[in-house]
Amino acid sequence: MLGTVAVPQEGIVGKNYVDIENDHGDMLRYRKHANGRGLIAHGAKVHPSAVVEAGAYVEPGAQVAAGARIGRGVWVETDAVIGPEAQIAPHAHIGPGAAIGAKAKIGVRTQVGDHAFVAGGALIGDDVTIADGERVATDPRGLRLAA
Question: Angle at the Cα of 20 (from 109 to 93), degrees rounded to 5?
């Protein structure tokens, strides 16, 4: 996870970015997304119509598609892909290289592992853990199917 060292920039009014030191001592620059004020790392791609709520982080190389909603406190790691109109509930964690399909819904505090895949339209409940590399699909009620 990221460290919590923010570097204040004295004398700059209305600053739209923040620099944060990661666990390896590297300084990463994040800009505040216009829809929700969540933090988007340099090198991440977030569609202007997506919502990234305050307290959420989108790491370098990650992609968030049109109409997606990233809740407060969500961490979208490097190279993860969030599909169109997907909804990620507060405090979820999307692992590196994971893919969330279009219109999928990820519950509160759910952990999606490294390189895991959640099919389009899937409903994943609260406090669920999806293992690294796991492929998950659900029916409209949220019951798991073979993916």
Answer: 15
Residue with tokens 């460290």: 3
Condensed to tens digits (0 to 9), the pLDDT of residues 74-102 reads: 999 999 999 999 999 999 999 999 999 99
Domain total of the chain: 1
Number of Cβ atoms within 10 Å of the Cβ of 111: 17
Q: How many CB atoms lie within 10 A of CB 36?
A: 17
Instruction: Residue 78: give the domain boundaries.
Output: 38-139
Q: Tokens 């944060």 belong to which residue?
A: 20
Q: Are 107 and 126 in contact (CB under 8 A)?
A: yes
Once rounded to an integer, what is the mean pLDDT over residues 45-58?
A: 96
Q: Does residue 20 lie within any of the structural domains? A: no
Separation CA 52–CA 64 (nearest Å)? 9
pTM: 0.84
Q: Is residue 16 part of a domain?
A: no
State the CATH number of the domain containing residue 85.
Answer: 2.160.10.10
- For 106, the enclosing helix (H) or strand (E) is strand 105-106
Structural Rg of the chain based on CA atoms: 15
CA–CA gap between residue 111 and residue 20 (Å, rounded): 23
Cα 33 to Cα 52: distance, rounded to the nearest angstrom: 7
